[in-house]
């Protein structure tokens, strides 16, 4: 049987990564809204330009968002929102499952994110 236990420093690091999810989404949406340069200025076409840098930042942010989304998809649908909101916003778990069940799925979610990031084998 698989163990979903992470060493404490890695567990904490992964939690903080997950808690940055709303800011990843905001940065990604801002980058789309502002266009190629992410600054609203001219859009040069030279290699290494701000357009290229903005595109690379957008790809990096997209990957970070996808990591959390893929890990969350491994959690049964009925627990996803409760686990996500507990980890990110520190909201109480809903009352339709036991606390131990919620803790189990939270632990697995954090583990899955660390796994998706390549921080564990």
Protein described:
The chain has helices spanning 8-19, 21-34, 50-73, 77-89, 99-117. It is an all-alpha fold. It has one domain (14-117). Helix 1 (8-19) packs across helix 5 (99-117), helix 3 runs antiparallel to helix 5 (99-117) and helix 4 packs across helix 5. It starts with 7 loop residues before the first helix and ends with a helix.
Which class do the helix and strand fractions yield?
A: mainly alpha
Number of helices: 5
**SSE string, helices as H and strands as E:** HHHHH
| Share of helix, binned | 55-70%
Number of E-type strands = 0
Measured by DSSP, the beta-strand proportion falls in under 5%
**Domains counted in the coordinates: how many?**
1
Rounded to an integer, what's the Rg over CA atoms? 18 Å
Average pLDDT rating: 89
What ranges have pLDDT less than 50 throughout 5 or more consecutive residues?
A: 37-41
List keywords for this structure.
single chain; 121 residues; 68% helix; mainly alpha
Question: Would you spell out the secondary-structure blueprint of this structure?
Answer:
Blueprint: H1 8-19, H2 21-34, H3 50-73, H4 77-89, H5 99-117
Helix pairs in contact: 1-5, 2-3, 3-5, 4-5
Gist of the model:
The protein has 121 residues and is an all-alpha fold.
């Amino acid at each position: 049987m698989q163990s979903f236990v992470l060493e404490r420093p890695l567990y904490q690091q992964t939690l903080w990564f997950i808690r940055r999810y709303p800011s990843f989404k905001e940065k990604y949406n801002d980058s789309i809204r502002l266009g190629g340069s992410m600054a609203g200025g001219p859009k040069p076409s030279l290699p290494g330009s701000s357009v290229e840098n903005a595109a690379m930042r957008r790809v990096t942010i997209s990957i970070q968002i996808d990591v959390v989304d893929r890990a969350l998809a491994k959690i049964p649908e009925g627990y996803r929102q409760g686990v996500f909101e507990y980890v990110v916003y520190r909201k109480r778990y809903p009352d339709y499952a036991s606390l131990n069940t919620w803790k189990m799925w939270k632990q697995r979610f954090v583990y899955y994110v660390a796994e998706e990031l390549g921080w564990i084998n």
